[in-house]
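note to self: dont lose this again. the chain is below, predicted strucutre after it. 220 aa total, dont forget to put it in the shared folder this time
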Amino acid sequence: MAKLYSPDSKTRKEIPMKLKGKKICIPVAHEFEDIELLYPLLRLSEEGAHIVIAAYQGGSSPRPYMGKSKPITGRFGTPIPPVPMVEGRRYEVKDALTIKAEDFDAIVIPGGFCPDILRREPYILNFVRQMDAAGKPIAAICHGPWLTISAGVVKGRRLTSFFAIKDDLVNAGALWEDSVVVVDRNLITSRCPDDLPQFCLAVIDALAKEAQAEAASVKK
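---
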């Protein structure tokens, strides 16, 4: 198992990386919830996962900016690519219309207004459906479940979300719960930024179990 080292050079404690070799997609469009991108990016990459930020420029006709399309930014101004983190270390940015489900182990959907833009793109909806059909973890927080609704993967399944879209989920046939994190097979959902620690732990747990199962099958 790959290992990281603590910054304390005296103790040099070895820290196992649970997600080494795993590839996670985080799709974003204009007005994503900044912390719901940045926290999973840092926490999951800390465990060794390779993060791909899938950027989507389409949707709600972003206002022109210096004669060009407005750069994708979060509700509080975080740009894509996020600074000051250097692309190529913890993450890379790809066009959302080029991503393929077979290349990823999980998808993490941040909230904000961006899920309402992402859900309008058939290519992205099909990506989510393919991830679900393959049983790969689909994690969505806050308004993120909007995308899972439009992808048609929530009917009869337990989910949570920001309370404002409870009715949307119920009307789509989901079984809504007011819980910090809800896991129903490969669907992982949480309500708001305050739930991010438990949300990320659930994602790590799901992928770590997959890794353990894969390792066990190789030994056989």
